[in-house]
């Protein structure tokens, strides 16, 4: 099937012990389905999760800098070093300057890390695609955390994003996000031409995350 | 000939009375040549310059916001209201987030203002072009204020930018900047396929700005 | 009586022609009362207002920089140069880094400009006072634009701010803001030990700004 | 003796395996002296270091937010959760807004975490002290990474900072930093009234970090 990336954000339900539990659930369900399910926990939890769980781990953000005199920053090479698969870049809650998005994508290309650039509309999706990342993830900010799935509420933005990306750089793959939690919304996202979905609260803040994830992938 | 946009920056030599004097010099020389010469003074000097001088005036920056509860910000509509021609957007000294660049370009399109998006390399030039601004101005940051003209030091970045823009959106025009002050560098910029140049210190901080500008346009 | 500073923000009702009209109303009402009434319009409108009206004009913001290669920024010296009285600093809609607040206050002291540092609680009020500005303006962010006057909703924060400032640096004067528009709230603010009020929407977005201001100063 | 906090920054020499090695060196030397030696590695390395080494670990930065929909951010509670001792706050390479410094200090007080607020001059030191953190660390930015020790180059700024803090809030302890790497500079810092030093490159980028640290604490 498709790709599912779960952003743990700075949710209490997605940090510390809960993050590890959630990662284990993802690992378990991953083994039962064909979907590729990856997670993006916070920086502090990554090391332990990666030792305990066989799931691809992404950062939620990375700074557009080289090793050096930077305090409180994370360098792309550090992600590689610790064994991360890649990173979300330019999430709507962590927007980056254009030049910095480009810096990180280019750096990731050289490091063999996977870049997932989040965008807010068709125009910025096309612009991001022009930078040649691995993925663009279109997420209308007004739908993030709304519970209203983008694939149902605004299929045009998804379809047009897929088309715009094809025109600019057909090597770039498209994800979509915002409000997705049900299996049918995930399937619709794939039908609209995306490779998968980026989600957060629908799983992480679900009363029963295991059940929510099983439902998403169609096991329930 | 071509287009010349002079960024007054926050130079002492380009603010207050000096800004007005400089604007008058631009007006005078403008009338003697075919080149389109415009200026981008700071916000405080615009109103007076626009009353005194018949030259197109651009802002150096504008905020990606609507009218409302924002303190210390400038709304795109305010630029229109006061009679500005447009604005520089995303200058290397005032980088914007991708979503904000898109917001301003889209807003300018509706308001009939001219958008000049500054970029730092071929990749970001292509990305900016995908957003459909009027102009992209490629300026390698390491050459800004260096006195080393981009058109001589790095003709490839200019040529490749022009080509990349053509591929992405052929309606977008290209300027280049950084280190330009001599007539031959300006001519080279045009030969490389740009519509003109964006410059600052080469004129504004010149010992004799009138002479420097006359030299640039080939009157000396 | 006291001090009234009216922040025009980026309100449509406080920019362009409306800004000039409002400035004239302030000038007229100023002449009828003992209160000191000043205004803080946006950068683009200042020059014209200052020529047309005899009212002290403040900036809403200023950048913590020296003259130089800064695009889209306003240097403290530029405010002095154009004849401004001073500036709001660190408004809740334009928060600054601690080191930058200090830079601007120190610069203003040397330039003879008046610094009004906005703060959000008693602790930051004390901290700002330690930097030695002319004024600290305590504004609980949750009340800004609410129509609920801080002097009524949270008199303790005002009283404690006044006391905290006295302890740290008794030369610093205190204003308060947020939700104030009625005469009695203004009077209460003075009774709580402040020198006056900072306000915005209560006047600028009032159906009849003249009436609102007359009411504020007790003429109605 | 005193307090030594070693900021690993985003140095290559202070991340990944090198970070762990360095932490072990600190643990070992710590056991031989009376000085309190703590470290501030990057977020990704903390978890492993804390399992392997018995040394107090601080964050280099923390975001001024609550648990919730924030991507790529670290919440104060997460630091507590993972067992950190506290955090540097407002380092010159990661300056914060005044209101955010206050937010973190207040949050740390409730969580029992140790707050070390970095400042750049006597005025900001006094302002930071007014917020009631555990420590203020005065570091003139121009000396950071310079190899010129603040305690020798500018003893007045240290002495005056200590005095200013005493006046504002005598519970706040003072560290100083910038350019320190020699034992005598550390001793001078203590003689000037500080509780210790904050340093980075002098140890982390030393050819032989063990030797450098032994020298700092007077074992060589």
UniProtKB/TrEMBL annotation, chains A, B, C, D:
Reading the lineage from the top rank, the first entry is Archaea
For the keyword Nucleotide-binding, the answer is: no
Pathway involvement?
A: Carbohydrate biosynthesis; gluconeogenesis; Carbohydrate degradation; glycolysis; D-glyceraldehyde 3-phosphate from glycerone phosphate: step 1/1
What GO terms in the biological process aspect are recorded for it? Answer: gluconeogenesis; glyceraldehyde-3-phosphate biosynthetic process; glycerol catabolic process; glycolytic process
Q: What InterPro entries does its record include?
A: Aldolase_TIM (IPR013785), TIM_sf (IPR035990), Triosephosphate_isomerase (IPR000652), Triosephosphate_isomerase_arc (IPR022891)
> Can you tell me which residues form the catalytic site?
91 (electrophile), 139 (proton acceptor)
Give the SUPFAM superfamilies listed for this entry: Triosephosphate isomerase (TIM)
* Keyword Isomerase part of the UniProt annotation: yes
Q: Name one molecular function that GO assigns to this entry.
A: triose-phosphate isomerase activity
Binding-site residues, substrate:
7-9, 144, 179, 200-201
> Could you tell me the EC number(s) of this protein?
5.3.1.1
Pfam families cross-referenced by the UniProt entry: TIM (PF00121)
Q: What is this protein called?
A: Triosephosphate isomerase
């Amino acid at each position: 099937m498709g790709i599912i990336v779960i952003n743990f954000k700075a949710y209490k339900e997605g940090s510390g012990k809960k993050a590890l539990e959630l990662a284990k659930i993802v690992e378990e369900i991953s083994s039962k389905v064909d979907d590729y399910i990856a997670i993006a926990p916070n920086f502090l939890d990554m090391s332990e999760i990666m030792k305990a769980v066989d799931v691809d781990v992404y950062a939620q953000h990375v700074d557009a800098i080289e090793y050096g005199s930077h305090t409180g920053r994370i360098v792309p090479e550090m992600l590689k070093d610790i064994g991360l698969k890649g990173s979300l870049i330019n999430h709507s809650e962590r927007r980056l300057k254009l030049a910095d998005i480009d810096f990180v994508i280019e750096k990731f290309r050289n490091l063999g890390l996977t870049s997932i650039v989040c965008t807010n509309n068709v125009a910025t999706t096309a612009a991001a695609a022009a930078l040649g990342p691995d993925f663009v993830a279109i997420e209308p900010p007004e739908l993030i955390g709304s519970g209203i799935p983008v694939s149902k509420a605004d299929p045009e933005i998804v379809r047009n994003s897929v088309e715009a990306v094809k025109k600019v750089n057909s090597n770039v793959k498209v994800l979509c996000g915002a409000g997705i939690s049900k299996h049918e919304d995930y399937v619709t996202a794939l039908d609209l031409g995306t490779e998968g979905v980026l989600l957060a609260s629908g799983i992480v803040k679900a009363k029963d995350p295991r059940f929510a994830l099983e439902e998403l992938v169609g096991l329930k």
